[in-house]
Amino acid sequence: MKKIIVLFAFITSMQLSNAQELETILLASDDASLLTENYLRPAMVGLMYSMNGGWATTAKVHKKFGFDVTIGFNGSLVPDKSQAFDFVPSDYTFLSLPNGESELQTVMSENDAETTVDISIPVGDGTFKVASFDMPGGITEDLPVNAVPAPTVQVGFGLPFKTDIKARFVPNLNFDDDIEANLIGIGLQHDLTQYFGPMDKLPLSISVLGAFTNMKVAYAINDENASDDVSVTNGEAEFKMNTWTIQALASLDLKIITFYGSVGYNNGKTTAKMKGDYTLTYDVEDSSGNQIGTVNETISNPINLDFEANGMRATLGTRLNLGPFKIFGDYTFQEYNTATLGIALSFR
């Protein structure tokens, strides 16, 4: 699938420079889904963690009708163990690695080298359908940072009862007529300090936050390589992501600087689908390995994957207050640790 990681084109407002012909994995037949899942998993998991970042830089809520506009950048760091995955032959029915490799790179690997994969599918009459394809390497070197990125633009607004409503919204966008993407997120932050009597006179604030994000990305898969063994008709990759987070926040809000932290829980689910019709071309060999012909097969909507990410999180951060302008940075400890940087314009 050319430039398969299209959601990065959306969230970084750029397209990756190197092409990823990932649709050739479909030649792996029943093994294609597992191979694709193993390859994409770090990007899908990292993105879900990134999208749950940056919702709050203080536990102190706005006064009624106060507001802020925040631009942030979240980057989830992919653990070294997730940059590659073991190739276990018993996990696959038809695949082998001809050059003795025992692992394959994931999409978030620093190694961009391709790996040849051989396919041999018994037909049932003593013959075999055979093919090979190049499994793509990682794309980390083409990203702005060595992390799964998720820029955010967010608006916060003060409601009565010391509650903030927060919104993230990107309308339907098109990139080069091949990519469509949109995002919507909503959050509520409620002040708890007000219930603790004279404590609300101190610079210490405590609140709770809940937030939900939905993102959809669709990417046209064009048949741009006529020399490979896969032809595409009406091809499309589709990603749908839902994430939510709930957090307890505390902050020490001084005039020039704010120290803040939170503990909470993340949850995310993503579906990745490859839609359309794909015609696969195999050589046919006899039991002695002699080629005796070719065969074409057409499959429809071949990939439907689910990814999940969930677990506890803890954040520590600092914000510099320059009047209405805020500069902040924090670090979240979770399965994929996440760094956040940003600026905000805030009026209380």
From TrEMBL:
<dbReference type="InterPro" id="IPR046495">
    <property type="entry name" value="DUF6588"/>
</dbReference>
<keyword id="KW-0732">Signal</keyword>
<feature type="signal peptide">
    <location>
        <begin position="1"/>
        <end position="19"/>
    </location>
</feature>
<protein>
    <recommendedName>
        <fullName>Outer membrane protein beta-barrel domain-containing protein</fullName>
    </recommendedName>
</protein>
<dbReference type="Pfam" id="PF20230">
    <property type="entry name" value="DUF6588"/>
</dbReference>
